[in-house]
Amino acid sequence: MKFVKAVMIGAILTAGAAFAEGDRTDPNAIARSDLMKIVGKNTGILGGMAKGEAAYDAAAAEGAKAALIEAAARIEETFKDQGGADPASEAKPEIWANWEDFLTKAKALGDAAGAMDVASAESIGAGMGALGGACKDCHTTYRVMKQ
Ligand code: HEC
In this structure, are residues 72 and 49 in contact, taking their beta carbons and an 8 Å threshold? Predict the structure, then answer.
């Protein structure tokens, strides 16, 4: 019995993990999520330096800034002509009903990243408000926030 129980618990845990990672099945939804993960990762790199959690690294900061600008520029092609078809997606259907507004918010992200002065941890810190504001401005309207 002990063995059966262990196997069952194992199966439940595995199913849980598979659900958490592979919940999106629509390739469009996966591509959107992947792009946003790049945005999140690079924002985290800059934020870590700004907060002093990571040592300032000029090359890493430049790389994160460039990656954010590039990712913001890819939002249009990555989100274009879709719908919130995948139930696991966090993209609200309002995106496609308000496409121009969504693109304006995507551009605001690219502008905030472009305006970021990455010369020092302090200057990165000074730009984090605008960068974070661009995320929040779009997420509030167009992303399903799961807690
Ligand atoms: C133009 C709109 C827009 C902007 C700007 C934006 N996001 Fe997003 N973000 C979204 C949408 C929509 C989703 C949900 C995508 C989906 O599930 O299809 C999302 C999802 C995410 C996710 C979850 C990715 C995942 O699936 O694990 C992260 C992390 C994220 N965004 C970080 C950021 C950060 C950090 C910023 C700012 C630096 C930002 N985003 C700016 C629209 C935006």
Answer: no
